Amino acid sequence: MYKKHFGLKENPFNVNPDPRYLFLTRHTQEALACLTYGIQSRKGFILLTGEVGTGKTTLLNKLLDWLRRERVATAFVFNSRLNVSQFLDFMMADFGIPCDTKQKSQVLLKLNQWLLDRYKAGETAVLVVDEAQNLSPQVLEEIRLLTNLETATEKLLQIVLAGQPELEEKLNQPQLRQLRQRITLRAKTHPLNLEETRGYIHERLRIAGSDGRTLFLPEAVEAIHRYSQGIPRVINLLCEHALISAFVDGKENVDPETIHEVAKEFDLDRIEPVAPKPPDRSNGENLTLLEALKALASLVDQMRAPEERPATPRERKL
């Protein structure tokens, strides 16, 4: 409802994980490079973790966009509350592997033969599991066993596990130590600092077709960062409702008072800052930023230009 008023072509702060809107901070570039490097190098098992709302699913969608353009076979498991049988069924269906049996041994034989055929053809297969912190220990163990599908030199299936920090805590349980030891690369998403928050808001407005006018006053951006604590999902929430409020009030831009009102409406003024946890470097291969950026260099042009598609606005009812 406010797009015409503010000179926008689409909703810039849609909460859907649209990969067109991925904002490449240093940490995001490193995480994206880690994922692409791990898949291209057939590292086998990659872990992506980050706090709620820091852009993990958007990052995964960006990765999946690239993999599909490269005609890499992918299976994306987004519902992690599955038992072992349901998980295998979902994976086989998403890979497009016909399987008319429910017998686990036959399912795995079909999967192994399919992976071998792709490997002989010089092709890669990637399994991506989102919200993996909700996986049961039984399903996590089954995923570990999938890494046994290999040749003498390389893994046949590349696996990306993505989840909240609770996933790392779960993997530290003694009964999952074999899985933890097989993680070869670790990537993380992080909250944005103030400067990144400015860039994030500006970039989303640009992609949404902004004509260049200043829609958020500098003091408003500072308030957004303070209330959101740099979490992109909360930034989107604040900006979306601030634009609606400014439109209703007939304002040409968003001032800090509008941000204060929106933050109070969503009780964000009561949330205490959370101290960041120190990085866990106890397991897996430590990929330096330099190595990550080198791995990303050959892909960045493609990653910055995904196919255009319209976003679906989700507007607040007044």
Strand order of the largest sheet: 2-3-4-1-5
Low-confidence runs: 274-290, 297-318
Query: How many angstroms separate the termini?
Result: 11 Å
Total individual domains: 2
CATH homologous superfamily designation of the largest domain: P-loop containing nucleotide triphosphate hydrolases
Q: What is the CATH topology descriptor of the largest domain?
A: Rossmann fold
Number of strands: 5
Largest sheet, strands/sense/barrel: 5 strands, parallel
CA radius of gyration: 21 Å
**CATH level 1 name of the largest domain:** Alpha Beta
Q: What would the average pLDDT be, to the nearest integer?
A: 86
Please identify the structural class as seen in this structure: alpha/beta
Order of helices and strands: HEHEHHEHEHHEHHHHHH
Number of helices: 13
Report on the structure:
The protein is of the alpha/beta class. The protein has 2 domains: 26-190, P-loop containing nucleotide triphosphate hydrolases (Rossmann fold); 192-270, Helicase, Ruva Protein, domain 3, CATH 1.10.8. The chain contains 13 helices and 5 strands. Strand 3, helix 5 (137-146) and strand 4 form a beta-alpha-beta unit. The radius of gyration is 21 Å and the shape is elongated. The N and C termini lie close together (11 Å).
